[in-house]
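Two folds, back to back.
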Amino acid sequence: MKTRRDYRESLGGLWSGRTDILIGTQMIAKGLDVPNVTLVGVVNADTAFHVPDFRAAERTFQLITQVAGRAGRGPRGGRVVVQSFNPHHYAVAAAAAYDFEGFVAREVEMRRDLGYPPFARLVRVVVLGTNEKRAREAAERFAGKLRAFLSVEDALLGPAPAPIYRLKGRYRMHLLLKTKDLAALRERLLKLAQAVSRPLQALIDVDPVNMM
């Protein structure tokens, strides 16, 4: 489906009964309310676990529960089949059991132990440049200078190549800062970013949504 019209036609087919099977991406996980859907399958449900993001378990749990909610909305009931290579992972197991409280308890415990939100603030710094060596060296300098201002409760990971290492002709190195006192570091971060000489560039993303 590439357009809104395609989307409407596909859903219309389900509603009218012309379509028996609909295959799609996460796009069909939300807002689909068709009473005659009695079977939903989730293929490779744990794919998100391989994404370097602390929210991977949360997103997997959300996806499975959202998709599961598409089945059984009519009088005939429904069934959900989930394919997973790690069925004992707490996110998959909790989603299969529809155990929201159990999932939240495990997720909160993990984030507290590792110092992730809501127990700390995250700042992602991405250093970009068309020259790979210079981008790496600039990221290392940035990290070295930043560490001088960190407290014992702060943690700095990296620099390391970003998961998407090269984008639009520019190499990307990133750092991840975990801190409980962002206000104390905000000005330092801005000054360090401004000190990165062109054509290199340093981007600061507070509480990043995308870790790629």
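---
second:
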Amino acid sequence: MSVYPALKSHLKPLLLLVDDMPANLHLLAASLKADYRIKTATNGSSALDLAGREDRPHLILLDVMMPGMNGIEVLRRLRNNPETGEIPVIFVSADASEQSQLDTLELGADDYLTKPVVPTILMARVRNVLQRKRVEQQLRLAAHVFDHSGEAILITDRTNQIIEVNAAFTNLTGYTQEDVRGKNPRILACGRTTPEEYQAMWQGIRDKGIWKGELWDRRKDGGIYPKLLTISVVRNHHGAVDFYIGSFADITEQKAAEERIRHIAHHDNLTGLPNRLHLSVALEQSLASARREQSGLALMFIDLDRFKIINDTLGHNIGDLLLIEASRRLQGCVRASDVVARLGGDEFVVLLDGAGVAMDAAASVAHKILHSLGQVYTIEGHALHSTPSIGISIYPDDGSDAETLMKHADTAMYHAKERGRNNSQFFTAAMNAAADERMELERELRLALLEKQFELYYQPKVVTGDGTLSGVEALIRWQHPLRGIVPPDKFIPIAEETGLIEAIGAWVLDEACQQLAAWKSAGIGCGQMAVNLSAHQLRSADLIDQVAACIKQYGIEEGELELEITESVAMTDPKRAIVQLQKLRALGVHLAIDDFGTGYSSLAYLKLLPIQTLKLDRAFVRDIETDANDAAISAATIALAHSLGLSVVAEGVETEAQQAFLSSHACDLLQGYLFGRPEPAHVWTERWQAG
């Protein structure tokens, strides 16, 4: 393709004036320099050189009769060179004969002027040739775009008869130009576009001169496809319509992609269930229907018990497979018209709607879910149990809008967990007050962590035989600025559910070790410092580093720090617990099982745990004098521990009779109100200082 220099908006067009007479060049330049940039040449060779440079001229004014290389030869060489072949040339000659003008025009000249040149005529001719060249460029570009566009293009006349189509049109529709010329574009219609849609299209074209939208068409082979169509109007100088230009593309793949995106946006990626967004839309639609028909609906919040423990201990892959199986079971418990959605994590929602939905129907579905999800999950060789806790709200009894129903079902679900898990609870007004209280307590708990409202109290452990101090257990207390002291059983469960327990546990460990170091430095002997570990802490990858850091920072010697874990925590994932406890033992930490007898320890695992102490739970000590079963269990536990080489601490010792029984069965250490209540560090310090 020949190259013609593009006109830049900030520069005047460049003209090359060629004449062997400097006087002629001066006259031409004087007429043109106000509107154009000027270059001059006095011979053919110089003209060709200047025309071939990077800053090529937009037009050449060329003298015909020059010594050496005349203007005719210069024109021939310009046209034969791809770089200069498109530059327009106006001949300027003293020869005014018609034949001379004809000959040069046939050779490719764009215009012919005779000397002497009239300045106004010169200006008009130059302007016209440049304008014509611009139009030619635009037409050539438009033709190239038309022929090579990836979009199908059709042009119709003012009566909407097709006069031209491009190759992309033929490739897309199967119709050739001969097939459609002179016909109305309605031959492409498939019947899926309504008359109202066509009317709206033409109204848009009339009002704005352009319309863009989606239509459905039929190919020549009968295939139906969606297209994105743009129609624009071409008007003449009088404003009347000359042509309509339509360009369109097959958007089948785009529509499929949009549908995939829409599905992804409304469905859970793991289980394929509807997600929170989909549920929100479905719930609003069901509520609107229930209001019209004066019917009911039920919303069920379902949380999988112990799922987080399974996920953390066995890995996300096992957890994901369990969620997939749980979603399958849930779908099997409801009708096809009901909605089962996953909100995230192990939280699911079931929406039951229809005229027959009431408390009895919801209770029946909840019973099915409890039974189905309560069955063992066999996943990659693991036999797993993850029962559901279900909260239920009913429209209109428990709320008239989606937000309220969701909130109340969630509240009922938490109540089900508090009732021991693996059960269903219908929402009641009393639950709402409890939920509000819990949310406020959670907010205040986060604030307490930031404002250091926690304090450690220390309770003594004594040797059974002589009552000498063996050690102390660090017990957390929350010094609330308004509520006073908040007991651990009120805030520890919330801390565990929210994940705050890890930060709180880390603070307790550091504070207890710091206090132990302070007492040692002051010459105050407290024996062994015992600190409780939560399930979250034991599972944490940071635990070993945290303990090691405290030991190093505070100079804790081997055996001075005891970490207590509950029996249920150790048995949740005994293999992992063994690994973690072995690492702690290697740091010189003393290890104890707390609340022994209240869980479900396997003796096979118990003997593998690298522990040194069992703590007999206060539940067995409380009635040890009057309950033969408690007495037998306590005696057997002490004997079992000693046979395994473990020492025993009895918790909750409050009477001398309890002390006597435990002493008679060789219990090693005693802890309880009989020997001292938990007290803050400064009280211990003052007592020791007082002697």
